[in-house]
Design goal:
The structure holds 2 protein chains of 2 kinds. Chain A is mainly α. Chain B starts with 23 loop residues before the first strand and ends with a helix. The chains are: A mainly alpha, B alpha+beta. Chains A and B meet through α2 of A and α10 of B. Bound molecules: flavin-adenine dinucleotide.
Chain lengths: 64, 537
């Protein structure tokens, strides 16, 4: 079973973070919420592995 | 309004039981002549068991009810002798479209698998379904089968005893008492029998109202299932359009929670809503308009001594996914052969507890699926709506999001995994879809099909394997059905039942579920399997 990566894994962390903020630039709260929701779904589908997704949900909720 | 609603199908007639000096005793009484009660009674009568059906009404069901029937229930109805009229009259459909806001986001084709006698789905008004069942009862009566329907016989009280049940029945000519060895309660979601016995019915009510209308119109809409999320004509809510025979269309419009039901039902309020949906110029006539709230709940146990609950009386689901009548038919399919063996002393009474176990498994699966569809269609928190809308928006652009769209998962039969009646799977790498506990998959056999050959008895299906033509194990007769992969040039029989094996032997229950399988016949193992499948091991 694959593990959830919780150690640094993004090369160019600052760049990525800036890109994330930029994607929300100029959006109101509901448009931003919608973008976040779509992003979660796109990423979740890319990961695909159900066990990893469950671990990610727990990790994000600080339940692990 | 359709005439069929007004004609008494089983008008009240005085029964000799009403003049008996001491209560008459029947083998089985079924309460409720809805689809499930009628199916139970037909199954019993076909197997030669005497049965009386009591119903407080004398007509087909009232209002907009079931529309979609899935393949497995049609196969069960074939066994009961009423599959053909259903399919002949019903409307077949494969294409669905999903709309979000003012646009179509995608369409899908159910792409039914080849090599099945019955289609994946048909649409048919519930009143036709009930009429065909009553016709079948009449046909059985003419052939001398011990079956009777008593209209306007309302069960008022029930007394349960160790070996029988006693009923007080109210008729237009006063009340009478009658007894039965066994009682099957198919008296619907509001089950008076359940209340009379003080039994629970717990679950979830969805705080939403739906306007359900059946309209008659000559419109150019195709034979497809159209589902709208948040359309301009019903903002913030959902809508459904689905075709039935005779140019009748089913329309569901979600209305929300805080509404005045009586007001919403009035034609002057309904018609503008429908015009907004269908177009101003479409001419239509209302057949039925009802307002429903939906629930998902079930009884904790379906068997209470000599009283067995089936259909909506035992479990209720929201209609997204068409699981009500469809699953009720699977209840009686599971129950009747077991009851017959118990009544004939060929199986222990405890076999009936497997009805409870297997059909609760089925009900839980249906409740889970219906609840999830309802949660997607009617999001109950801000974030669940945001996520739902995100799925819909993505589904327009990207294929990956389409499986997440849930406007109802259509009914499929459940596999009784873990049932005590199953023997461990002994067919190495056998196809998973026909593992023990599964309903048998149909397969083409030249100019016929597999399922009609299974019937309603225990069968030993051999595919390119030797076995005796008949095995008898403690009163249970098992007849061999000998086939070869050569019987099916399309090779579906091999794909569905053998996989990579050269041969297989299946023990098949009277409800056409697999009880055991192995590559070759082994007498000791199959005798064990027969004993297990009848609650003796
Ligand atoms: C809007 C809507 C859409 C639906 N769509 C679908 C669908 O597409 N597919 C599907 O499979 N299901 C669907 N269903 C569900 C389906 O209609 C029910 O599951 C089905 O009718 C249940 O049948 P039943 O025989 O268990 O109960 P019922 O049909 O409710 O019959 C119960 C019978 O018991 C009788 N009775 C009650 N009390 C007494 C008494 N005291 N004495 C004597 N008789 C009594 C009643 O008169 C009635 O005839 C839908 C339901 C609704 C409301």
């Amino acid at each position: 079973m694959s593990d959830l990566t919780l150690t640094p894994n993004i090369a160019g962390a600052d760049d990525f973070y800036a890109e994330l903020l930029a994607a929300h630039e100029g959006l109101d709260k509901s448009a931003s919420d919608a973008l976040n929701a779509r992003l979660v779904l796109v990423l979740a589908n890319h990961i695909g592995d159900r066990a990893v997704l469950s671990k990610a949900l727990k990790a994000a909720a600080f339940k692990e | 309004m359709n005439k069929i609603f007004e004609v008494p199908l089983y008008a009240y007639e005085r029964s000799p039981d009403q003049d008996a000096s001491s209560p008459a005793r029947h083998k089985v009484i079924v309460i409720g002549a809805g689809p499930i009660g009628l199916a139970a009674a037909i199954d019993l009568a076909q197997q030669g068991i005497e049965v009386v059906v009591l119903d407080d009404n004398d007509k087909v069901s009232f209002g907009s009810r079931a529309v979609c029937y899935a393949k497995r229930p049609l196969e069960i109805l074939d066994r009961l002798g009423c599959g053909q009229p259903m399919v002949d009259k019903g409307v077949e459909w494969n294409l669905g479209k999903v709309f979000f806001d003012d646009r179509q986001v995608y369409d899908f084709n159910l792409l039914p698998e080849d090599g099945h006698q019955r289609p994946a789905f048909i649409n048919l008004q519930q009143y036709y379904f009930e009429e065909y069942l009553v016709n079948r009862v009449r046909e059985l009566q003419e052939a001398g089968a011990p079956i009777e329907i008593r209209g306007r016989n309302k069960v008022e009280a029930i007394g349960t005893h160790a070996d029988h049940v006693k009923l007080e029945v109210e008729t237009p000519e006063g009340s009478y008492t009658v007894e039965a060895d066994w009682l099957i309660a198919c008296d619907g979601a509001g089950s008076p029998v359940r209340s009379m016995l003080g039994l629970d019915f717990v679950g979830r009510v969805f705080e939403d109202n739906f306007l359900i209308a059946d309209v008659i119109m000559d419109a150019g809409f195709p034979t497809e299932r159209w589902f709208w999320f948040d359309p301009p004509f019903n903002r913030g809510q959902s809508a459904l359009l689905h075709k039935q025979p005779d140019n009748v269309w089913r329309i569901d419009l979600q209305l929300g929670w805080d509404i005045d039901k009586e007001r919403e039902k009035r034609p002057e309020n309904v018609i503008p809503r429908l015009k907004a949906m269908l177009g101003e110029d479409v001419q239509f006539e209302l057949e039925w308009v009802s307002i429903y709230t939906f629930q998902c709940r079930r009884m904790e146990k379906f068997r209470h001594g000599r009283v067995l609950f089936a259909g909506d009386a035992a479990h209720q689901v929201s209609p997204f996914g068409a699981r009500g009548a469809n699953s009720g038919l699977q209840d009686t399919d599971n129950l009747i052969w077991k009851l017959k063996l118990v009544m004939e002393g060929k199986a222990p009474e405890s076999l009936l507890d497997s009805y409870d176990m297997e059909r609760i498994h089925g009900a839980d699966e249906n409740i889970l699926n219906s609840s999830r569809s309802t949660d997607f269609i009617t999001p109950k928190s801000e974030m669940s709506r945001v996520l739902r809308d995100a799925v819909l928006d993505l589904s327009e652009q990207y294929e990956f999001a389409r499986p997440l769209v849930n406007s109802g998962r259509l009914s499929v039969p459940c596999t009784y995994d873990g049932s005590p009646l199953n023997s461990a799977d002994a067919l190495l790498d056998g196809p998973a879809r026909t593992r023990p506990g599964s309903p048998c998959l149909d397969a083409p056999l030249g100019d016929g099909f597999l399922l009609p050959k299974l019937g309603d008895k225990f069968i030993l299906l051999t595919i390119d394997a030797d076995a005796p033509d008949l095995i008898e194990e403690e009163g249970i007769e098992v007849t061999r059905l000998a086939l070869s992969v050569k019987d099916d040039p399309t090779m579906e029989l091999k794909r569905r039942y053998l996989g990579d094996n050269d041969s297989a032997v299946y023990l098949i229950r009277p409800d056409q579920h697999v009880a055991a399988r192995r590559a070759t016949f082994d007498e000791t193992q199959f005798r064990h399997a027969i004993r297990r499948a009848t609650g003796k091991e």
